[in-house]
Amino acid sequence: MAAGRERAVRLLRQLQRAACRCPSHSHTYSQVPERPTLGNTDYAFEMAISNIRYGEGVTKEIGMDLQNLGAKRVCLMTDKNLSQLPPVNAVLNSLAKYGINFQMYDNVRVEPTDQSFLDAITFAKKGEFDAYVAVGGGSVMDTCKAANLYSSSPMSDFLDYVNAPIGKGKPVTVPLKPLIAVPTTSGTGSETTGVAIFDFKELKVKTGIASRAIKPTLGIVDPLHTLSMPERIVANSGFDVLCHALESYTALPYNMRSPCPSNPINRPAYQGSNPISDVWALHALRIVAKYLKRAMRNPEDREARANMHLASAFAGIGFGNAGVHLCHGMSYPISGLVKTYKPKDYNVDHSLVPHGLSVVLTSPAVFAFTAQMHPERHLEAAEILGADIRTARIKDAGLILADTLRKFLFDLNVDDGLAAIGYSKADIPALVKGTLPQERVTKLSPRPQTEEDLSALFEASMKLY
Q1: What distances in angstroms separate CA 310 from CA 53, 123, 293, 385, one per listed residue?
Q2: Binning pLDDT at 50, 70 and 90, where does residue 16 land?
């Protein structure tokens, strides 16, 4: 009997050792030990994008979308110029057709400020809206995101959600109203992202709000809206797509970013380059290389303009999760400290450096600087933009990409550096000072930078050709 019991026990132990340990199949479960975090860098990334709907004339569906959402009181946001143009008319026709009750706010400022955000927020709070529609470029979409956020969190101070170190950078935990974004330019990709950028006038610097919670519910990408874009707006919007793609692809990898969040709600929207964002960034870059010049030179080239409209969304998916770095970080004071520059084709009553232009003017210097890290990615980008790299040396990747960008910009009649838009060497300390608070993006540069490095990059960007 004893021998039999021992044989039975041995058999049961053998069966237990051989049993499937998968929690789905086994009857015993032991918790998987936590993955140790090496140092304090992150070990995960996540993808968050808006739903996207693409097609010629798809704007006509917005009224049905709002009906499906059960919206009873809609806020339509745009700017003074667009309020008289076909994209807004298309939205108004759809709202009327489906009996949607709405109020229009057309006082959005091109390159918004904290005050213009606050004006829109006041309008939104008074209106008690249950849905939002933004029709315009990045300025309109970003303003609408902010209005939705602060009207949904009426007791919050404005700086509560503004990025640190300028604001408190609190996570957004309140539920927001549905927001449908209708981009009319091919650049910001704001219809896909949880980012809203503005000029903080007191500090003369650009900053913003970054949270997955504020991304639009739906992006309506209708290429018909790009047909009325003037030449320089096409070009400057396209430069934003170009830099979104280049910066997100060359950003610090997500698993080298620190600190590792203690709670996933604190994982930033801009996480560093990652395998999914890389796919979108490279695809967008190839479209820019093929279609931007065509889209700028011929407003009747529907194929080129439609593809650039898609490229903007593609790059938005990429950088909206990977982030951008030095070109954007340095662009904010370039825009914020503008003196008297007024660009062609922009109908505005104030001095303005268009966002895409402010970003691209430093790109040759920036990528010559960052190419020490991941030179193969810089070389790959140069090849996509037309460089012959068959005999290139990997150590020359930065110079090759910089020269390729200069040629690209020269062909598109871009101003000859920061000096051409009103800056001089005397402005460099202020430009550096305005870049330093942009840690949310500058820390994603693959190569760390000192104040002296930033000074040298601004100086190198004074003249391009």
Answers
A1: 11, 32, 15, 18
A2: low
